[in-house]
Design brief:
Blueprint (H helix, E strand, L loop, with lengths): L15 E7 L5 H16 L6 E3 L7 E9 L6 H5 L3 E9 L1 E2 L11 E2 L7 H9 L3 E5 L8 E2 L2 E2 H6 L9 E14 L2 E8 L5 H11 L4 E11 L2 E2 L6 H10 L1
Parallel strand pairs: 3-12
Antiparallel strand pairs: 1-3, 2-3, 4-11, 4-12, 5-6, 7-10, 8-9, 10-11, 12-13
Helix pairs in contact: 1-6
């Protein structure tokens, strides 16, 4: 596995697991494409398998596991592991995408929201449940990505996912902003959780920040940036 302490890159065809700290506005595919191109150019590979284990939205940062070569067969195993996120919610406002991709469309009162009320609301989301994914998501609906339909203004419904949230805790309560830490299963949309928390508080909410900090036993503290990876490749 390649992390920020390792300089021996090994054999990418045999397989490597690379922990990236994905920057803001990069897509997960951008990281995969950049990684593939750097490896191919450096080692003159005609082909090299590269894939990621779990998409992060462009407006999210944090841990992205990228596998190369034969290790791409392990991607499903990593995808199935529990994830941890730090989310920043803006209460009293909603957006169609449930994050900053779209403009605020509605305003709601927040004067009634206390830290204790917020803590009580969070208890409703612990455990197994059905969650409706955001319309602005990569889910397929009738053969098209949901976000394409949403951006075209189409009306459609998305089937709920079965998800499990094992932990939620407040890390900072400074209205109208609240930060929470979430441990959850594969398929959980934190943007949808923000929507649902807002509704549970008889108000509204959307994400203004999201960072994935863990996937199973992997931690973002051991991850490298794409710039650091490029430097490692050039020096190898």
């Amino acid at each position: 596995m390649i992390d920020k302490h390792l300089t021996d890159l090994g054999d990418f065809q045999t397989g490597q697991v690379i922990l990236f700290d994905k920057p803001l506005e990069w897509t997960s595919f951008n990281i995969v494409k950049k990684t593939r191109n750097l490896i191919r150019k450096k080692y003159s590979y005609k082909k090299i398998k590269v894939g990621h284990a779990g998409t992060l939205d462009p407006l999210a940062t944090g841990l992205l596991i990228v596998c190369t070569g034969k290790f791409t067969k392990q991607i499903e195993k990593y995808q199935a592991q529990e994830k941890e996120y730090i989310a920043t919610l803006r209460l009293g406002q909603t957006t169609p995408s449930f994050d900053l991709e779209t403009e605020v469309d509605k305003e709601f009162p927040i004067n009634h929201i206390t830290e204790n009320l917020f803590k009580e609301a969070l208890k409703k989301f612990i455990g197994e449940q059905k969650q409706i994914p955001p319309n602005f998501s990569a889910k397929f609906v009738d053969g098209k990505r949901a976000y394409v339909k949403a951006r075209n203004g189409e009306d459609f419904e998305i089937r709920p996912n079965n998800v499990n949230i094992s932990e939620i805790e407040i890390t900072d309560f400074s209205l109208p902003t609240v930060k929470i830490r979430i441990s959850c299963s594969k398929g959980t949309y934190i943007r949808a959780l923000a929507r649902d928390i807002g509704e549970a508080l008889q108000s509204g909410a959307h994400l203004t920040g999201l960072r994935r900090t863990k996937i199973g036993e992997f931690n973002v503290d051991d991850a490298i940036s794409i710039v650091e990876f490029e430097d490692l490749i050039k020096k190898a």
